[in-house]
Specification:
The protein is an alpha+beta fold and about 160 residues long. The chain contains 4 helices and 6 strands. It has a single domain, classed as Nuclear Transport Factor 2, Chain: A, CATH 3.10.450. Strands 2-1-6-5-4-3 form a 6-stranded mixed beta sheet. β4 and β5 form a beta hairpin.
Length: about 160
């Protein structure tokens, strides 16, 4: 009987009080599949390098036909509570065709980092001196493409006056 009483006291001491929620254990992150990372990086580089080269085909192949590219509006829009600047694939391809970001290769300064891959979805971060893009990619069969992009245009210094 004394042993049972001691066991009950020990169990009560080990259990957290009901007022303190028990936090679930976080899952141990799995290592990313190197082949998937390489494939996602290749698509992200097609996206950014294609824009820097003005290569329409390279940019187009990196994008889902229903691409949603968004940026948070710097100035409020009276018609939207949470204003977004929106762009679709055709608009981005058009800007590439116009050479909006065309830059001599020796001035390229860009990076791509794959943040996560889970099954047929991935997240990557692309950075240049002009913008940061957070890309959501999907794998369709063996092909990865950018489905969504949320981007941040970096503030630029004023242009030098002649």
């Amino acid at each position: 009987m004394i042993a049972a009483l001691l066991a009950a006291i020990a169990l009560q001491a080990a259990a957290p009080p009901a007022s303190i929620p028990v936090q679930p254990q976080a899952a141990t992150p799995l290592a990313l599949d190197p082949a998937a990372v390489k494939a996602v990086e290749a698509v992200a580089y097609d996206y950014v390098d294609g824009q820097l080269e003005g290569d329409v085909a390279r940019v187009t192949r990196s994008l889902h036909p229903d691409l949603a590219k968004r940026a948070i509006r710097a100035r409020p829009d009276p018609d939207e509570t949470l204003g977004l600047r929106r762009m679709n694939r055709d608009e981005l391809v058009g800007l590439t065709r116009q050479g909006a970001l065309k830059t001599p290769r020796e001035k390229w300064d860009r990076s791509v980092r794959v943040l996560d891959v889970a099954g047929n979805v991935a997240v990557a971060r692309v950075e240049t001196p002009w913008f940061v893009d957070h890309l959501n990619l999907g794998r369709f069969g063996d092909r990865w493409v950018i489905v969504n992009a949320l981007w941040y245009p970096k503030p630029q210094p004023p242009a030098a006056k002649p």
